Amino acid sequence: MDRTVAAVLATAIGAGIAMQAPLNSQLGRTVGGLQASVFALALSFVCLASLALVAGGLGGLRHLSEPPLYVVFGGGVLGAIYVGSIVFTVRELGATGLTAATISGQLVFALVMDNFGWLGLTKSPVTAAKLAGVALLAAGTWLVIRD
Predict the structure, then answer these.
(1) Is the torsion defined by CA of 23, 29, 31, 32 positive or negative?
(2) Which of 22, 24, 73, 141 could be bridged to 100 by S-S, CB 3.0 to 4.6 A?
(3) What is the pTM of this model?
(4) Which one, of 114, 105, 68, 72, lies nearest residue 86 by Cα?
(5) In this predicted model, what pLDDT tens digit does every residue of 41-75 receive, in sequence order?
(6) Which domain holds residue 120?
């Protein structure tokens, strides 16, 4: 995939993700926050399983015993923590505050992961420009959530 196409796609998906927390939170007011999260993740599972079946099947799952357990379970557990928490945090922070705080946390830890080449990433050292970007995002996050 071309880098520009990937950036546009990621940005568009990010716009959709901004709706995820308010939608799940609104559902949570009726059915309960964790119950809304369970339903959202179950629906996500059905959608992804269907897409995988159409795109070639689920045969690759037979290799789940090969990677380390933190690789097998890490993404799913982190996804559940995220989806389970946004139903509550969006009520206090709003969609903008939640998004800013989430992206700030992602960017800071991504910088660390890239710098050390953790989780199979190609090492990309911390630079002054990257630190400036993180500092600006942190300042923006503070401005968004301070009131």
Answers:
(1) positive
(2) 141
(3) 0.81
(4) 105
(5) 999 999 999 999 999 999 999 999 999 999 999 99
(6) 3-145
Which residue do the tokens 């993404």 mark? 75
The answer to whether 101 touches 145, Cβ cutoff 8 Å, is yes
Nearest CA among 41, 42, 48 for reference residue 80: 41
| Beta carbons of 123 and 117 less than 8 angstroms apart | yes
Calculate the alpha carbon distances from 125 to 1, 116, 121, 135 in Å.
Answer: 24, 8, 12, 16
The tokens describing 62, both together, are 């037979």
In the chain, the number of structural domains is 1
DSSP tag of 65 = T
